[in-house]
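Listing S7. Sequence submitted for prediction.
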Amino acid sequence: MPHEPQPQPADELDAEAVRTWSSLALAALGRAREDIDAINVYPVADADTGTNLYLTAESADRALDAAGAASLAQAVRAWAHGALIGARGNSGTILAQLLRGVADVLGDDPDGRSPGPLLAQALTRAAQEAYEAVAHPVEGTMLTVAAAAAKAAQAAEAAAGTAADVARAAYDGARTALAATPGQLAELGRAGVVDAGGCGLVAVLGALWQTLSGQEPAAEAVRGRAVPVPQPAQPCAAEEQAGPAYEVVYLLEAGEPAVARLRERLDGLGDSLVVVGGDGLWNVHVHVDDPGAAVEAGVAAGRPHRIRITHFGDERRRARGERVQRAVVAVVPGEGLAALCAEAGATTVLARPGRTPDADGLLDAVRRAHAREVVLLPGGPDERAAAAAAAERARADGVRVAVIPTRSAVQGLAALAVHDPEDSFDEDVVAMTAAAGATRYAELAVAERQSFTSAGICQAGDVLGLIDGDVAVIGRDLAGTAEAVLERMLGSGGELVTLVLGPEAPDALAGRLEAYVQHGHLAVDTVTYRGGRYCAPLLIGVE
């Protein structure tokens, strides 16, 4: 959990207040995450709203921290941009648009304007833009809670309230609206729960009030259960079949006219359509039965990337403990990679330095996947023997298991990217194996002592660039060594470079390496991820 800074003085809106709000909101969503997941019944009962909101807020907080913004305008724009590029699910996408609405007001030369009216205007704009982003708004949801918060903020501002007064009014208005959601939406009423997305928004607004007042919100307001919930709601078979089968999410680089046409096309393909963003960058979210058509629509509109496709049926059946037909189990060396693979539907096992997962741990993950067929991605050579042993034991349980011979996490990402549960098991395994084998991999590490390597003698503190497992480059700094490694790897061609940054790698490194690739290899795309704790300083994949 991130460190929570001290709240700001009342009626103070500046860059530090935004950073405090972001950190407190992330902490509040982290505390409420599991409870919000448990009451997630609308629009799809897939128990991930709390997780999606948390991951979106985490992306926003990370971008804000990296920006080092000195002004209020810079801070809110960086915060909103981070939410946009990291938005997860329906609720996270709406949260990103709410933050963009706030940024559209606070980022528009706010100097000299009274903080109370300015905040009320920002919350009002946020609610308006969120409604506009959703193709078919439904009352009793996160949107309703946002509108109620904005209305209460306007009333407080009209009474000459301070920014803290406006924030408290918005928070109280949101809590009241949240409590009323079961009476507005039939799905919530039947389950006896409040809206999960609205619950997350209450947590975010509570963090705003805490930032400006120094007072901590009531615990029950951010716990995710404003009404009694005996157990997570379970959809009946008829409800499970009622909606589209897939969730499709991607970032899109396109102009507004193209996005307007895209909205019309996607609206005809499915439901829960939310398109947020602007200024050439958009986050697209839709539920469809034909995910390929949704992606093709994005290609026709511009340049889609960070494409994520989730099959709802598998998620629902796993939540009930039922077996799905096929699953992927992936061993990953970092929490960020674990979250990335989990979003793609994989069951993950975290590998830590000096603690290689054993056969028992991998077998447990295979069993947790609740599938008749399992594709196991061991992550690296150290896990291969344990993966093979776990596979043999799982086969004895009647599970069909195939182990893909990956030697790096980036090969696992490449294999997961082509995984298609609609193909036959053999076809899927062959495609994933081919994708992994076609991905060259590299790892940058820091030498702990003087030693002999295949590239010469290194000293303690030198940066080692290992390509396909062998030391190929010895450098003095991470960026320069990474560039030398990329030049060698791309010398034999490539279409896509994947960069996975370790916990200590600066965000500026990704920008430098992306520019380096683009300058020397115009036809090569680059994607960047954060590996999280336990990840190497830098992993590189070239496909």
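Caption to Listing S7: primary sequence and predicted structure tokens for the chain studied. Confidence is low (pLDDT under 50) at residues 220-241. The radius of gyration is 24 Å.
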